[in-house]
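Sample entry (279 residues):
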Amino acid sequence: MILLFLILAIIVSAMFLYFTQTGILRALLVFVLSFIALNVLYMCFWAIVGLFIDNSKPIRRQSALCRGGCVGISTLALGYCWVRTKVYGLEKLPEGERFLLVSNHRSLFDPLIFMKYLRKYEMAFIGKPSALALPVVGKIGYGAGCLPIDRANDREALKTVLTAADYLKKNFCSMAIFPEGTRNKTGDTLLPFRPGAFKIAQKAGTPVVVAALCGTESINRNMFRRVTDTELHILEVIPADEVREASTKELADRSSELIRKCVEKAESETENAAGARTA
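Predicted structure, serialized as tokens:
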């Protein structure tokens, strides 16, 4: 998307230079202004789309337009913040069936990475109500199937679990949730997983995809200064029959252990690589 905006801005500035025969500096100014304008117009378009999204009740189907908006906005944000991601294990993902994805959570950018790199799987996220209250992206996310979960209110949280399971059953979209319940800012590898998150897959009769993100906690620190290298690992797919037979605690323990090992290995490799560079 950024490349497209750059190309369009170059075309506009080249046409301006050709027809006005003015200097390079003015053409450069036109290029910069055109690039900024294209970005503003893009976000205005999604703001207008959001006006037609009713977030007071569950969706009847996932909006392909809103899903495209989530992917596009995620791609722009990651590009402007210089985030580079290597993806491992995509071949493990189920084809032709919905699933619940669970992952660790270290950054506000985590959902954006999943949206961009797993766009083929039509995913929606379950997150804090404040995330879906954000201007533009909140309404677009809701239209794409994203749901707020109020973990302080058990009744409302159960409603969200049942709605998410219903979306899976009706084949609206695949769902994703961070079982830690919040971003991990402690320095520990993982926060304890909340078993209730796995009830979604049990009620919907779908497999659970266990994924791990590595390096995303550095994005805010590196933003606009240098590239942040991150990793997305698809670790395991727990089949629907195993999900149905296991307890939610067993599923939480199994998933968290897989993610813990992956993150610790990635951190160890990063430290070893940094040590080798300074040696």
